[in-house]
């Protein structure tokens, strides 16, 4: 069994077809399985983080929860909830370098599994032979009517091709040393008297092909030897070699995960789960990885859901990444008080902390502390500040 087939059986995510290696077998079989594992680990982390983000919709500057909001945050289609849909959308974008989502007449949003993309210079691109779950749609879709995103996958393809072959050689070498270290070696001394006997060849073949073979293959065994034969094991300290080779494989895995993390803009320490410097790693991950993807999604959704005249009046979609990181309510109390004093409403603060807004008119009122004033008023004296 190939290690690539074993790895294929290891990944069984809820979404069919995203991480299964059949979809990428032509490329994956050219690379080491360890790097495929590292790549999938990074993609799985990113898609999980973005799947918890709320897609917030605004019309004329006012946040609304209408049909668009429901479709993107609750139930985009009959067979997926919003979290599953977002996870698949991001995973396909990062793994395949592009993702297409069509909208049916009844409002369902379906992510295409395969399609034909015709690119034009001065008119809208066309998508045909769009397929999902074994069904191929007959109609063609224009780029202005679909959600279509691309990522700079070419850079990742170059990275993969440059290092995978070397990793495969190193991993194969480590595995070979591991197998050799786990074997049995020894010296068999045979006296001259025994070698001179007439039935020596028959006894020797029986000893090697039956006794020694069974002895080496068994975990616990006894080896009978005749007079004139002396066996001395040369395996030495196998445990140390075994441990060293496992460490070599682990080092290769850590290095592959670190490279995959860097390609996607994730600090390697974050994807490995290191506790030291976790706050800085989270900040770097949000800045270099999550927020650029969120901005790309926000721009595409805004352009496809609203006309230009609506956008200039304050209609847009934004992917709220504030709920990705865990907020300690006690630790955030001082900052929340400052936000309230600077004009945030109570419901805005609750939403930023991952809590649900309350249905109270006072929770939407804005308050400004007296410590805040225009600089001209401060220069004129304290009367105006009062």
Number of strands: 12
User: What does the radius of gyration come to?
Assistant: 32 Å
Amount of beta strand: 5-15%
Helix content: 40-55%
Largest sheet: 4 strands, antiparallel
Structural class: alpha+beta
Q: Shape from CA axes?
A: elongated
Please report the distance between the alpha carbons of the first and last residues.
80 Å
Number of domains: 3
Helix-strand sequence: HHHEEHHEEEEEEEHEHHEHHHHEHHH
DSSP helical segment count: 15
Low-confidence stretches: 10-16, 23-31, 237-243
Overall average residue pLDDT: 76
Short summary of the structure?
The protein has 15 helices and 12 strands.
Characterization of the model:
The chain is of the alpha+beta class and 386 residues long. It folds into three domains: 220 residues, no CATH class; 51 residues; 60 residues, no CATH class. 49% of the residues lie in helices and 14% in strands. The strands form four sheets. Strands 5, 6, 7 and 8 form a four-stranded antiparallel β-sheet that branches. Strands 2-1-12 form a three-stranded antiparallel β-sheet. The protein starts with a helix and ends in a 6-residue tail after the last helix.
Descriptors for this entry?
3-stranded antiparallel sheet, 3 domains, alpha+beta, 386 residues
Please render the helix and strand layout as text.
Elements: H1 3-10, H2 25-28, H3 33-51, E1 54-59, E2 62-64, H4 67-73, H5 82-96, E3 98-103, E4 109-111, E5 114-118, E6 126-132, E7 135-136, E8 141-142, E9 147-150, H6 153-181, E10 186-190, H7 192-195, H8 200-217, E11 229-233, H9 238-263, H10 268-272, H11 278-305, H12 308-312, E12 316-320, H13 333-341, H14 346-352, H15 375-380
Antiparallel strand pairs: 1-2, 1-12, 3-4, 3-9, 5-6, 6-7, 6-8, 10-11
Helix pairs in contact: 3-5, 3-9, 6-9
């Amino acid at each position: 069994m190939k290690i690539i087939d074993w790895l294929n059986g290891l990944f069984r995510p809820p979404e069919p077809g995203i991480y299964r290696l059949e979809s990428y077998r032509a490329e994956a079989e050219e690379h080491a399985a360890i790097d495929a594992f590292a790549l999938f680990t990074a993609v799985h982390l990113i898609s999980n983080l973005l799947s918890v983000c709320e897609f917030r919709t605004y019309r004329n500057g006012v946040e609304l929860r209408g049909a668009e909001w429901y479709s993107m945050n609750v139930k985009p289609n009959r067979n997926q909830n919003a979290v599953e849909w977002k996870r698949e959308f991001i995973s396909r974008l990062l793994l395949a370098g592009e993702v297409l989502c069509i909208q049916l007449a009844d409002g369902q949003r379906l992510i295409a599994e395969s399609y034909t993309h015709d690119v034009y210079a001065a008119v809208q691109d066309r998508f045909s032979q769009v397929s999902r779950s074994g069904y191929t749609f007959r109609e063609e879709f224009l780029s202005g009517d679909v959600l279509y995103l691309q990522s700079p996958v070419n850079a990742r393809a170059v990275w993969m091709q440059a290092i995978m072959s070397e990793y495969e050689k190193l991993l194969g070498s480590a595995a070979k040393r591991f197998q050799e270290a786990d074997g049995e070696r020894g010296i068999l001394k045979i006296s001259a008297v025994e070698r001179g006997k007439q039935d020596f060849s028959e006894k020797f073949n029986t000893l090697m092909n039956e006794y020694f073979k069974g002895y080496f293959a068994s975990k616990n065994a006894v080896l009978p030897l005749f007079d004139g034969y002396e066996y001395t094991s040369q395996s030495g300290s196998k445990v140390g070699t075994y441990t060293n080779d496992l460490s070599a494989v682990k080092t290769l895995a850590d290095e592959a995960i670190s490279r995959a993390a860097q390609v996607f803009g994730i600090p390697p320490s974050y994807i490995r789960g290191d506790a030291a410097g976790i706050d800085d790693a989270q900040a770097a991950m949000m800045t270099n990885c999550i927020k650029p993807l969120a901005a790309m999604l926000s721009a595409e959704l805004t352009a496809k859901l609203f006309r230009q005249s609506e956008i200039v009046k304050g209609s847009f979609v934004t992917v709220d990444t504030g709920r990705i990181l865990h907020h300690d309510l006690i630790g955030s109390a001082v900052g929340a008080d400052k936000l309230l004093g600077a004009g945030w409403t109570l419901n805005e603060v609750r939403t930023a902390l991952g809590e649900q807004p309350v249905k109270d008119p006072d929770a939407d009122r804005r308050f400004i502390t007296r410590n805040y004033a225009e600089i001209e008023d401060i220069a004129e004296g304290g009367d105006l500040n009062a």
